[in-house]
Amino acid sequence: MSGTTHDDMTEMGERGMSRRRFLKVAGLVGVTVAIGGGGYAAATWAPRESEELLRETMGEGMSKVLVVYGTKSGCTAGVAARIGETLAEEGLTVEVVPAEDRPDPSGYDAVVVGSGIRVAQWHGAAKEWVLDNAAALKARPVAFYTCCLTVATDAEDAGKMEEVRAYTDPLIEESGVTPVELGLFAGWNEAKRFSLPERLILKALKAPKGDFRDMDAIAEWTRGAAGKLGVA
Ligand SMILES: Cc1cc2nc3c(=O)[nH]c(=O)nc-3n(C[C@H](O)[C@H](O)[C@H](O)COP(=O)(O)O)c2cc1C
Fold it and tell me: How far is the CA of 154 from the centre of ligand 1 (A)?
């Protein structure tokens, strides 16, 4: 699922945002912050805007779908909202809930769960939610999605997209939950949404600035996923 093209993206596209490169740069910034007294934890901390962690109910259909999301900057909350709206337009009742709220998936016909990415990994709260609810998730159709910058810069590079797809493999393996679909979405690099260490990491990577979420592509993916989830 490719994101909006952007002039500034050329440089990062050429350099690539490989997992190795993210790890290296995050490590360097982490060490710098540690010297300054913040520690690596500070490098992955981002301010949370509570109004962006809203829980929403949409639609009035017979089938009920739970959409869960993990975010740090708010980017993936917007992606989850678009997924929810699309499912509601398809005639379903949808609840969009942050992973931190630990919703119980047992009352739903299907689940869509996803996360933003930090250093090639899902956020802790989203991972934990999948692992804690693995039994209920194995008993109903589930789709996964991720939201990151590699999809914004390297959507045409099949190897890079395999790398992004692999961000979710450890969770699939550990939880035993096999998604019917895995959506790969472009995220954002909005400076005001990230902490200083995070901005330094993205600057060192020469990440392009902007909001690369392609809401039409997300809606299209969702309509396809609804069919595979057996709820549309
Ligand atoms: C510290 C840090 C590490 C990141 N690591 C990756 C990465 O490994 N791969 C990637 O494609 N994007 C990476 N990104 C980009 C984010 O996934 C992207 O900005 C996303 O939109 C964030 O959404 P969220 O805040 O909802 O998680 C990273 C961003 C930051 C700040």
Answer: 14
